[in-house]
Amino acid sequence: MNSIPGRTDMSVTLLLLFLTLPMVSSHELRRRRSVAPFLGSGGSNSKAMLIPKNLWHCGSDGFTSDYSYSVVEESCPTLAAAINHCCAIHDDCYGQQFPREMCDQDFCKCTKDVTRLPTAESTRCRPFMEKEACLAIEFGGFFAYLFSNYSDPSSPSNNDLVVLDNTPESDYMNLYSMCPFANITLASCAVNFNLCSSVHSVDFCAADLCHCTMDAADTDVLHNDTCLPAVTHTCRAVLSHSSRVLASQNTRNLFIIVLSVLTIVSLGFVGIYMFTKSKGSSKMMEEGKYLQIHTVESARSVNPLLTNTD
Ligand SMILES: *[C@@H]1O[C@H](CO)[C@@H](O)[C@H](O)[C@H]1NC(C)=O
Ligand SMILES: *[C@@H]1O[C@H](CO)[C@@H](O)[C@H](O)[C@H]1NC(C)=O
Ligand SMILES: *[C@@H]1O[C@H](CO)[C@@H](O)[C@H](O)[C@H]1NC(C)=O
Prior knowledge:
The chain is 75% helix and 0% strand. It is an all-alpha fold. It has two domains: 27-251, no CATH class; 262-304. Bound molecules: 2-acetamido-2-deoxy-beta-D-glucopyranose (3 copies). One 2-acetamido-2-deoxy-beta-D-glucopyranose is lined by residues 221, 224-225. The chain crosses the membrane at residues 254-275.
């Protein structure tokens, strides 16, 4: 008797699990993507350090910042933009005074994702990120957290505001006043996008930029009424810019293909013409000795006047 309600309980639990698992796992996926949206795509062609010092956000003071910069420059420069993004998110997390433990855990997860792939650079940087950087933040983040408070006008985010290269219609500068508590993350999104679009086509980077900025907007809950609409507007502009670029690239490619086909075909015709001409002329040369006589003969036969002139 008792086993029946127990069983229904279990099946209800199972059903709930079934219903919630996909949500949880898709949330996980989304989250993984968002903490490090570009995952180093910006630097795949470069060996040099990708981030200038003034845009570097790792480290809480001059010394730790210099130190982390030199380690990354030395060991994994092509991951610099992605690692720097983890630090940017962490800065804004502190600035908004979200629970410190959550900010720190997100940071460690972010850098773990960035150094996940089994490349030489990841392998070199992973131990530093996993041990030194995470520990430094855990033990050294106390004062940084204490002194970060975006709600207090006397401690602003104080970062360089970066805009998107070559897409003035994106209105990116506007985002900083619409999402004032995500300034550092938004600047890092722009840096990543600019690096990405310097080595890839814009359409390759546009979707990542939108995920990056929309994730940033999700964190600025205090300004959700202004921030998300502004980010959506910017995203629309970037995506339509990117599809215009793609369309013009396609037109150009089509033009090049048509031009090449035409060139090949006309070269082919020229070749055939030359071939038949050279064949014809050698035949003519062969027949040349008879030809003259023959023509004169035939001319005579055709035109009786010629015969009379003799
Ligand atoms: C941050 O600053 C605001 C405004 O000055 C203040 O009300 C708030 O208590 C501060 N938060 C913390 C955690 O210090
Ligand atoms: C972010 O930048 C905007 C635009 O310059 C500024 O008004 C805002 O105060 C900044 N946010 C913080 C937290 O400093
Ligand atoms: C913004 O957040 C507040 C409180 O979290 C919520 O009540 C409001 O509906 C949100 N606005 C938008 C546009 O999402």
